[in-house]
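Q: What residues go here?
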């Protein structure tokens, strides 16, 4: 590569000889400042490899998509999938992979924390038929393998998540939570219909969804400090990950989203019982009604933030969504109150009656709100 500004990719790339060999998929959100530097680093690492990079951007307000398109206008190896109205790293990665025509696909973050110099070794491993999947691991040892850029709290959480993942996968992987890997495209296409588009742990999902175990090689690398952009991790990711673990344990009989909805519903039961207990002095029927409304509000807000985070409603849509949610949930509300009152009058403890009423409405709420609200 000729001497030039390292933050600017070559404007006139050499024409590839033969077919496309590798696609690098980069999910982005608010990473405009990293775009040109990342392309240059990938270009320097891959040399004469016939490659392309697909940035999958979730409508970043900082103009990441516009920056990618500006580069793509002069460099045909660069593409932008600009997603509007949907969010989530897993969904972005899956869309990027499915948009590729290359036999091999690499996935790496847009925050420059992954080591692009590992890409040639990953590609050689797959190209030579030695594996179906090459994973950049922070924990398999070797020169420079390090996860310290995560910080002590996140590193501890990452190690716990990896341990849980290994128990479910039954695979010899030190870093099943890695966001840096290369895979045969055919291996992903074979299980694409089973993959969850919500959540962050797409590598874990790809490995766990296979009918036959993939041949996996792990390569150590140094996890670098973030240079720019926003972290996509928050507390909601923990809930999504637990849902994914349970879904895979059930062989995908239970969907991760339904599990998250159920967990939120369980928290709503606690809210319901707390309100009911505090308002029993006004009469059971009234207390049960207000408790149901309180739990309904709690469930809506948590589901919007966690269960449907990839379709999260904001502003006026958050308010209109709440109205729809309340209307739909009010349909079984009468049955909720009636069942709970009958049970209460027959003598069981107040919490048994309250729980009986709450369970009646649960199935209806999931089916209707998932379709009409989100």
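A:
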């Amino acid at each position: 590569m000729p001497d030039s500004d390292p933050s600017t990719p070559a404007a006139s790339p050499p024409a590839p000889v033969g077919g496309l060999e590798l696609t690098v998929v980069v999910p982005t959100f608010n990473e405009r400042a990293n775009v040109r530097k990342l392309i240059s680093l990938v270009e320097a690492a891959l040399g004469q490899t016939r490659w392309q990079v697909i940035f999958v951007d979730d409508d970043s307000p900082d103009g990441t998509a516009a920056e990618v398109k500006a580069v793509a206008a002069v460099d045909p190896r660069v593409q932008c999938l600009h997603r509007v109205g949907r969010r989530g790293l897993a969904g972005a990665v899956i869309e990027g992979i499915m948009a590729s025509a290359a036999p091999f696909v690499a996935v790496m973050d847009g925050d420059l924390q992954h080591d692009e110099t590992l890409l040639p070794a990953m590609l050689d491993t797959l190209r030579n038929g030695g594996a179906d999947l090459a994973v950049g691991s922070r924990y398999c040892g070797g020169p420079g393998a390090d996860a310290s850029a995560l910080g002590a709290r996140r590193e501890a959480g990452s190690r716990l998540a990896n341990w849980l993942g290994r128990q479910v996968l039954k695979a010899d992987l030190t870093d099943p939570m890695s966001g840096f890997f290369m895979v045969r495209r055919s291996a992903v296409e074979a299980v694409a219909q089973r993959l969850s588009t919500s959540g962050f742990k797409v590598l874990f999902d790809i490995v766990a969804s296979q009918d036959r175990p993939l041949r996996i090689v792990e390569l150590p690398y140094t996890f670098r400090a973030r240079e720019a952009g926003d972290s996509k991790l928050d507390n909601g990711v923990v809930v999504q990950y637990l849902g994914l673990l349970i879904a895979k344990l059930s062989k995908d009989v239970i969907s991760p989203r339904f599990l998250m909805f159920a967990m939120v519903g369980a928290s709503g039961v606690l809210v319901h019982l707390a309100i009911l207990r505090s308002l029993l002095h006004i009469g059971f029927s009234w207390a049960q009604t207000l408790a149901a409304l309180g739990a309904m509000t709690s469930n809506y807000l948590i589901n919007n933030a966690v269960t449907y985070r990839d379709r999260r409603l904001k502003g006026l849509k958050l308010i209109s969504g709440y109205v729809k949610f309340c209307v739909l949930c009010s349909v079984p509300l009468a049955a909720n109150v009636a069942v709970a009152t009958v049970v209460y009058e027959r003598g069981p403890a107040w919490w048994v009656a309250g729980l009986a009423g709450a369970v009646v409405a649960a199935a209806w709420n999931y089916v209707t709100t998932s379709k009409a609200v989100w």
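A: Context that may help when evaluating the design: Residues 256-279 form the longest helix (24 residues). The chain has 13 helices and seven strands.
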